[in-house]
Design a protein that fits this description.
Length: 307
């Protein structure tokens, strides 16, 4: 069903006016959570995708099942929100569009949030959810792990933990506007982000790992040994302060022999993918991510046929 589309410049202005002022260091986290759920409710869900509920590990998930998808393919999706806000409500629309584009069932995890549940709670939840997905019958060769912003950190760091533990890794990682340098050493002072403010990110990092050295190896995937990780699909907007995180990841991963498909979306802001269904460029970005994930999840089928 065709829907009226909002110009990207108008949506950027809406994000700057409705979201950025709330994401600051002074407003209570509880208010930020409620406001983000309110403003994201207007985003339309994708057509031909059923929305259900379930559990993975000890946490609830929203389950997005495309009508014409492949039931053997799964995506574990980890939402963004600076580890302190965001939920299956705020990212439900994005997840339905990703399910439609990838043809995979998307499991949107409601992991525990800081500051009530600091590190390693969210990471523990992500790893437990992936392991439970496999115990439920998911084939790692047909499974992707994806996430945006802080969820990108969780996706990448979970993969590192799974590798170190000897677990079977997913076929591909999908990272959108990933926040990987929690110290913010490369945040450009001359770039105006439509959504993010460094002061808010610093508060989020402090709440996520209070008193910790955020440059320590367990918090710094950009300095970790990435060898052996699955291919990375990396999306980032040209106008966000986390652009350098994506570029640095691509360079670091390629040096470790990890295939990287880096897509820089000119004119788009932080996690502009969340406007899929309302903004044509955002829909294109999610479609590109979904088809990219699907291509990797299909490779196991080709291997089986060849064998």
């Amino acid at each position: 069903m065709s829907r009226p589309q909002i110009p990207a410049r108008a949506m950027r202005a809406a994000v700057r006016g409705l979201v950025r002022p709330v994401l600051g260091p002074r407003l209570p986290v509880s208010l930020q959570r409620r406001w983000l759920e309110l403003v994201t409710r207007m985003t339309p869900l994708a057509d031909a995708v059923d929305v259900g509920t379930g559990r993975l590990g000890d946490r609830p998930v929203a389950v997005m099942t495309p009508h014409h998808g492949d039931a053997s393919r799964s995506v574990l999706y980890l939402h963004g929100g600076g580890f302190t806000i965001g939920s299956a409500v705020t990212h439900r629309a994005l997840a339905t569009h990703l399910a439609a584009a990838s043809g995979a069932t998307v499991h949107l995890l409601d992991y525990r949030l800081a500051p009530e549940h600091p590190f390693p709670a969210a990471l523990d939840d992500a790893v437990a959810a992936y392991r439970k997905l496999l115990r439920n019958g998911a084939d790692p060769g047909r499974t992707a792990v994806a996430g945006d912003s802080a969820g990108g950190w969780l996706a990448l760091t979970a993969a590192l933990r799974l590798r170190e533990a000897g677990d079977r890794l997913p076929a591909v990682l999908g990272l959108v506007s990933q926040w990987l340098d929690l110290l913010g050493t490369a945040w450009p002072a001359d770039r105006s982000d439509a959504m993010l403010r460094p002061s808010w990110l610093r508060r989020c990092a402090a709440g996520f790992a209070p008193g910790a050295d955020l440059g320590a190896p367990q918090f710094a995937p950009l300095t970790a040994d990435l060898a052996g990780l699955p291919p990375l699909l990396v999306h980032v907007g040209s106008e966000e302060i986390l652009l350098e995180d994506a570029v640095r990841l691509a360079v670091h991963a390629r040096a470790a022999g990890v295939p990287v498909d880096l897509r820089r979306w000119d004119g788009l802001w932080h996690v502009a993918h969340a406007s899929a269904g309302m903004v044509a460029d955002s829909t294109t970005a999610v479609t590109t991510l979904g088809t990219g994930l699907a291509a990797h999840l299909a490779r196991v089928d080709l291997r089986h046929r060849a064998g």
